[in-house]
Amino acid sequence: MHVQVSVDYQPGFYSGTSDNDIKAAMRADGAAPECIYEPAGFTYEAHARPYDVLLAYLDGEMNLIVEGEEYRCVPGDRLFIPAHTEHAAVAGPQGCVYLWAALL
User: Fold this and answer.
1) Which of 5, 11, 47, 93 counts the highest number of beta carbons within 10 A?
2) Domains in the chain: boundaries
3) How far is CA 80 from the centre of its chain?
4) What's the chain's average pLDDT?
5) What number of other Cβ atoms are within 10 A of residue 44's Cβ?
6) Any idea what the Cα angle at residue 53 is, between residues 13 and 76, rounded to 5°?
7) What is the largest CA-CA distance in the chain?
8) From CA 61, how far away is CA 76, in angstroms rounded?
9) What is the phi/psi pair of residue 72, to 5°?
């Protein structure tokens, strides 16, 4: 059972790992990752979800603000956001490709 209650940002966690191996690792954590592309400047307004979210960054960059803390996520980074945690994001100048998964 997955129980984590705080934001967990791990820069470079997946560095040197293929996209397929990252997906497999996320599945091993109980996730069903979806690959998402956001164009440059795409913005997610502040929101919270009723479930935990696991993110793995594959290309480009995304700037996130999670509970007032700023994170610049780049390829290889991993970010866990607990349920009911407010967060917002803006894709970088080249856009961003990442894996997103709800942990239910």
Assistant:
1) 11
2) 8-103
3) 7
4) 95
5) 13
6) 20
7) 38
8) 10
9) -105, 105
